[in-house]
Design brief:
GO biological process, one term: defense response to virus
Number of domains: 2
Structural class: alpha+beta
Number of helices: 17
Helix content: 25-40%
Number of strands: 19
Distance between the termini: 82 Å
Organism: Microcystis aeruginosa EAWAG127a
Protein name: Type I-MYXAN CRISPR-associated Cas8a1/Cmx1
Length: about 500
Amino acid sequence: MSKFELSIFDPNTLLPHRAGIAGLALVLSTLEIDDAPISWEISEDTVTLNWDCDDKEALDWLIKSAYQIDSGMLNVPALNLSGQGKYTFSQGVTSTFLQHSKQRTLDKTPRDISFKVDENQPEILVSHRSLIDCYYLRDFKGVFNSKNKFSSSIAIKGHHLPGLVECYINGEYEESPSGFIALLFLPIACNYYLLQNGRYALVIPEVKDLKSWINRRRQLSNRSYRDFRSPSAGEAGLRLLLEEALADSLQLQKVEYCEVYQLGKQPWDGNQSGLKQAVYRVRASHQVLSVYQSAISLFPSKVKVTDKGVSWLDISKILPWIAENLVNGKTWYTKFYEFRKSPSNNIKYERKGLIAMTSHLQPYEQTLFDSVQGAFSVYLVGQSKQANKQGRPLDYAQVTDKVIHRLQRPSTQQEFATALVDFLSQFRSKAARGLGREIYAWIHGEEWRKARDLTMLAIATYQSKKKDGDANSEEELVEIPDSDSVVEADDEGYEESL
C-alpha cells in the first residue's frame, strides 16, 4: 500500500509545490471516491493519498481525471470552465508549461475563434491552433521503475516549472515523488495572462487554507478574454490579489502574496519564446489595492475597430506604469516626469482617468500639487487676457510645449528648485500662501524627484474649477511670458468658451 501526505506547511516545499497541492485538492474535491482506485482525505493544509494498486495506475487515473482535451483545448473539468475560460486556460498552459513543441502537438491549420468582450462592440477574432495531444495525456517517462513504482528521484524540467533551466554543473533538477505529484497539478492553481509583444505572465498564488481556496478558485475560474489580457506582469499579480481581497468568503484566508513569472524571448536565445525574463514577488497592503482598484476601473481595456472593420482590444498605457510603481512599493505617480516625456505615452485619451487618480494623493502631496495648479491657473488667466487683447485665440499646442519644457528641462535638484520657485513666485496664488516651509522641504529634500513628478502631474491634470470637476477636452496649458513681472491674481481658474 502506498501513502502520500502532501502538506502546504511542509518545510521542504516551495510556493509552486504548495499551489500544486491546492490544484490537486481542487480536482479531488470534484471526484467520486466510491469507484476510484485510490482514496484520499483533504484537510485545511494537507492532502492524503492512499492506494493499493501500483503507483503508475494510480497516477494515470489522477491525471486523466484532471486533464482532458475538449474541442481542441486543454480542459480541467474541476474548474467548470466556460467557452472563453477554456480558451484562456488552454492558451495559457500551452504557452507557459507546455510551450516547447515536444510537450504538445498542435493542429497545423489555425482557425479563428470569436469572443464577445463588450456588449455594444463587435466580437474579437483570435487565431487558435487546436490541441491534439500534450504531456499530461501521455505516458510519463523516467518517473517509474520496472515495477511501476515511483523512482526515488524524478527529473524536473521546464514543463513542470516554466523557466526552469538545467544546471550545467549539477545536471537536472530532481524531485521526490511527492514534489513531482504536486507540480503536475500546478497549472490548475495558476492564473495566466497575455502581455504585450507576445509575452506571458504566469501567476502562482500563496495558498494558506486548501478548503477556502478551493471555493474561491471555482468562483474565479471562468476568466474571459478581457481578463486574459494584461498590460504588465506586475499588474497581473495585483489583479489576482485584488480579486482575492474582494472575496467575502476569504476574509481570513485570502491570498495575500503571489509570484509572477514573466516569460518571453531573451536576446541571446531567439529560438525559445518562453524563457523566464523576470520574477515579480507581489504583496500588497489594503491601501495599495485600493489605489490599484481605482486605477483598473479608470483605465480599462477597450474594444476598438479599425477602418477595415477589424476589432481589437486596446490596452491602457497608464495602468502598467501605475501597477509597476505599486508593486515596487512606490507611490503611484513615481517617475511621471519620465513617463510624460516618452513619445510613446500619449496621455491625451486617458487624461480624465489620470485626473481622477489624483484623489489618492496624501495631504502633504496635495500641498505641492495645489500650489503648482494654483500658480498655473493664475498664469493661464494672464495669458488668456493677453490673447484677447491681441485679438487671437490661445494656441494650446504651442503653449503646452513651452510650459512643460520650462519645468521638465531641469535635470538636477538645484536647477529644478530654481525653476519651480521662479514659477510659483512669478504667478502667486492663494493655494501657495503660507506654505513656503512645506514647499522648501519638497524641493530641497531627498524627494525632489518626487516633487518634480508631482509638478508635472499637476500641470498635466489641470482643469478649471468652473468645470465642476469635468476635465476639459484639451490640456489647458499656456505660454511662458517674456517679461519678468510678478503677477498675483485670484486662482479660480481659466475656462475656455466652447
